[in-house]
## 1
Amino acid sequence: MINSLIFFIVFAAHEFYVSIMDVDYSKKEHSIQVTKKIFFDDLEHALVLFTKNQELDILAYNQDSLKPILAKYFIKHIFFEVNNTIKEFNYLGQEYLDGSFYCYLEIPEINKIKNIKIKDNLLIDVFKGQENIVYLNINNNKKTIRLREGFEEQKLWFAKQ
């Protein structure tokens, strides 16, 4: 009983940092659509360091004014390579829901996906133990990858369409 209590106290005191990325390929729209979910306080802390603006309050910020800041931060920390070619993404915007920011990206003009490499080191330089979980749904294949310090990118191959 005491060992269980000690384990619970140590585990409960340990801070946990995670973000979620959903990557879906739309054959109809010929694009990769990405949703990144991040706890607002983690994102705010990272953006304070990124912008060097100690007064930054992302919940009070006008969403249109926040968009270019987030776009720059994402471009610095997230990379996609599709079929062995680096692809730029469009940062579409963000919304705040239930304690998290949902940020939306799109990679246009993708006709098929043979392989994809994703690098996501968002927040890794800010929080020790940060993990970025990526759920992929490409060509009706669902895969999950876990990115973290030292393992910030992974390449996956998919069956022909």
## 2
Amino acid sequence: MKVLLDHCVDIRFDRLISGHEVVHTRQLGWQQLSNGKLLLAAEEGGFTVFVTVDKNVRFQQNMAKKNISLVTLSSRLTGFDQIAPLADQLVEILERDISPGSDIVVSPTGD
């Protein structure tokens, strides 16, 4: 699966996602694109999943009309140490057959 990490996701998070092509917006020079334009660029770039820690994206965008899926890493804090434990759950999700336009929230166990 081709995965794009939002610029608000720590760039080191990519090394925790194995078995998939993971690219960060900074690597593409897309860190200045806003959510709507970023999702469009990601779709055009052939990405199948967009990963963010921005909890507002899912409310601002109509994912049902998109050819890309949204995964929101939902933890109280969004630093690397706080989202790293969510990597295994994300990998499990990526191993499934995710339908385009899906909106998935990954949160710490027990939340």
